[in-house]
Fold each of these.
Amino acid sequence: MSLITVERKILEKNDEIANLNREKFRFKEMFTMNLVSSPGSGKTSLIEQSINVLKHKLKIGVIEGDVQTNLDAQRIDALGVPVVQIVTNGSCHLDAMLVRDAFQKLIDLDLNLLFIENVGNLVCPAAYDLGEEMKVVIISTTEGDDKPLKYPAIFHNSKALVINKIDLLPHVNCNVDAISKNAYSINSELKIFETSCTTQEGISEWCEYLLSMVK
Ligand code: MG
Ligand code: ZN
């Protein structure tokens, strides 16, 4: 078998399991979000802020994907929210099988909203359906305006873009309008949010959106 055939077979198998995951999530009436970004853009911080605002309105759970350590899961656990850590031992993305196995530990909890924090990487997470209802791509103001053009697949496959760390705008060479313009050129349907997990700016708009998706 050629390498391309092997890769296609892996993705076909993944999609099969992802569809089963999605059926299970929908049957449970749970809205599932797959959060994708480069390392350090603020995925865990955004989840923490969302939990702080919404924990009395929704039953939230989290699956944390990391290459090593359970440090992010500890942060979520400290908020009293059920969390399962997936350590990929070097693999740079989550796949539907890992999520299926992790979800077994949350299946009896009647969650309304499940966040899946992917491994920090803008490349392969775009290709791996986990069974989520939507992908969210996060980029921070410390990254380049040209990220959407360099990594178009994840911007194309996401329903929402969160531009995070806007509190740093006075200190960094970042043009938020250019990020939005580049992102829209890839995906004109994207819903774009501007947030700071430090000052909480934009967090209430983001949480309103989450509530409207879950309802
Ligand atoms: Mg994280
Ligand atoms: Zn990967």
Amino acid sequence: MRKKHELPAVIPESVGIIMDGNGRWAKKRGLPRSLGHSKGAGVFRDTVFNCRDLGVKYLTVYAFSTENWKRSEEEIDAIVNILREYLKKAFTEFKDENISVKFIGDISPFPQDVISEIKRLEADNPANPDMHLNVALNYGGRAELVHAFKLMLADVEAGKLSAENVNEETVDNYLYTAGQPDPDVIIRPSGEQRLSNFMLWQAAYSEFWFDNVLWPDFSKKDLLRAFADYANRDRRYGGRK
Ligand code: IPE
Ligand code: IPE
Ligand code: MG
């Protein structure tokens, strides 16, 4: 009989995942890094459904950073090809399953067919999704802030905004994630204990869950372990008990 996992008492409303460890997973098996990315993409698909089934409302996954262009052309091409395949299949499946999809980051350097497909998907999102999925692609927390400041300054120049009215909520409204709750928990597999430029503004009070498992091995059990630990966190936001 299949063992049923015990459900954590509290499910985070908003989750961030840094999907790391694909390369090491492949290397350990003597495989090309691209195969690690393929396996990781399958785990991404499963994790989206697992989060939705558990009741997560907002999921942001880190798929490609502004720094990942430092990788070889061969590796970047492999990632773009997997993205292409997923745009055609998995992302359409998400929409059919009432999950809305948004890409955060600057998608302009990607090939035109990829950009068109992303725009097509985003234009046709469910009105009342069970879960909002953000895919961070050519995303960096610093780049997001620079982008926000540029938009904000343009509004100041156009007379739509004045400096004295700028507060934290204003900044929030210029981010890619405007209108969404900050991540309650950020999960990073692969053993690295850093943000690597992920959601710098939004992570101010996020809880962290670091795990040694490599992303292509990340299972529902690992997700539930992260959530079970999160359920016991004491979030004080600077106040006292
Ligand atoms: C994460 O896995 C995927 C991307 C950054 C695109 P990595 O490719 O960083 O895997 P490791 O960290 O080298 O094992
Ligand atoms: C962060 O992982 C980016 C993604 C998972 C997409 P990296 O592998 O790029 O981060 P570093 O280089 O270990 O900090
Ligand atoms: Mg990595």
